[in-house]
């Protein structure tokens, strides 16, 4: 890894969060924090 805030350092996490938002949350109604946490854990371990 190189310097702080380098695009290559953050690319994998930015990609993950972009995919999870696209597949799970666009168009959904807001839920509680606990429900959100359980949905994300279920998605990750699927």
Structure, described:
- The chain has helices at residues 7-25, 33-44.
- It has 46 residues and is mainly alpha-helical.
- The chain has one domain.
| Count of discrete domains | 1
Kindly report the average pLDDT value.
82
Structure classification: mainly alpha
**How many helices?**
2
Biggest pleated-sheet summary: none
Question: Share of helix among residues?
Answer: 55-70%
CA radius of gyration is 14 Å
Distance between the termini: 29 Å
Unreliably modeled segments: none
Strand percentage, roughly? under 5%
Q: How does the overall form come out from the CA principal axes?
A: elongated
Question: What's the layout of helices and strands?
Answer:
Blueprint: H1 7-25, H2 33-44
Q: What is this structure, in a nutshell?
A:
With 46 residues, this protein is an all-alpha fold.
List keywords for this structure.
single chain, 46 residues, mainly alpha, 2 helices, 67% helix, elongated
């Amino acid at each position: 890894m190189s310097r702080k805030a380098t695009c290559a350092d953050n690319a994998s996490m930015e990609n993950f969060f972009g995919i999870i938002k696209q597949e799970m949350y666009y168009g959904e109604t807001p839920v509680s924090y606990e429900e959100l946490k359980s949905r994300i854990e279920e998605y990750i371990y699927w």
